[in-house]
């Protein structure tokens, strides 16, 4: 955790654990800081030796088109969602390999199945995370280790409130954000409680075989099914229509512009 003093107190309260319960150990880690990751890896190895499971659950998102979101935000999202898990795995993998056991669980998103408008950096980072997980699974299978990818649907987590938006309500992409916000609120009605995600993580830690990939949430299952049975162009049209995206060519210079209104800047359309 970035702040174990606060996080461990919450964790103990949720689990009814005593302050000296040896099953809960707080380790400071900031996935944007390579030195912090190295220190956390050393602390974990000292505390437990070779971990039985490593779950990459941290996630950072940002709202904005390519023209709106600054480059440094893209880099921050990739540092947390992709390079951080890669570095932490590198720290712990030698001990897991030597022990001949262990599972790496990667929390992915619908955005890794189909890049979602308005959250391109998040989608790209999760797509990169999945491709790396596939590669890793083949590299470590011979040593008795495995990888599971969990594709998360919509869940009401803190990311919904904490995500920073760069959407310009008077810019050329205003109509996109307006429609994404409106449809995002509709999708939130089917979003699950985070507690419903926990059993999927537990099952993933007990997966057997070199590689597994599971959807968690009805929307994730439907999108995974669509990606398997539909041509890419058709799936893109369906996703764009579901999100309320303007029709292709409808905003070309010289054409009529749809009426716009300033979108609510509180971000609600998010994956995972």
Report what the structure shows.
This protein is α/β, with parallel strands linked by helices and 272 residues long. The chain has a single domain (51-243), classed as NAD(P)-binding Rossmann-like Domain (Rossmann fold). The chain has 9 helices and 6 strands, in the order H-H-E-E-H-E-H-E-H-E-H-H-E-H-H. It has helices spanning 4-15, 34-48, 71-99, 120-140, 159-162, 174-188, 198-205, 218-229, 232-243, and strands spanning 53-56, 62-63, 103-109, 146-152, 164-165, 211-216. The strands form 2 sheets. A 4-stranded parallel beta sheet has the order 1-3-4-6, with helices on both faces. Helix 3 (71-99) packs parallel to helix 4. The two termini are 19 Å apart.
